[in-house]
From TrEMBL:
A Pfam cross-reference name: wnt
Name the record gives this protein: Protein Wnt
SMART domains: WNT1
Signal peptide as annotated in the record: 1-20
Protein encoded by which gene: wnt8a_0
Main subcellular location of this protein, as a coarse class: secreted
GO molecular function: cytokine activity; frizzled binding
Family of the protein in this entry: Belongs to the Wnt family.
Keyword DNA damage in record: no
Family annotation (InterPro entries): Wnt (IPR005817)
Compartments where located: Secreted, Extracellular space, Extracellular matrix
Amino acid sequence: MAHAFFWLLPLLYKTCPGYAWVASNFLMTGPKAHLAYARSVQGGAQSGIDECKHQFAWDRWNCPDSATQLRGLKRATRETSFVHAISAAGVMYTLTRNCSLGDLDNCGCDVSKNGKTGCSDNVDFGERISKQYVDAQETGQDSRAAVNLHNNAAGRLVRSGRGTT
């Protein structure tokens, strides 16, 4: 089955350009798909927590000790909003950096930067994968999940340089 799909892949890209994303999604499924970026996501979330600790070093409120404690933030406060935003930004930054360094498969330099030499950061890749991983943690349909998704998006927006706080 998979061999037949790979044979049809060039045909799919040529005849159905609008459906090329289907092929990409097919290629990124399976048991190893999530492992490809897991280390970068984990490192990025931890770098967000480390930055949070740096920013709140002299504050009464302190950040969680590790990225695994993000789900333990029960109260909706400005501080927890900051933790969600800075963690999403950290994940996006780490994915973008590791992609540009060639540490990740299925990504590469951003070719849309015409006229520049060298390898431009593929910010769109970092944003897309960060959104898939970080936003997947919010499974509820309540207002708290909506707020956390908003804070995640705010962190990615500021990190990409497309917005300000």
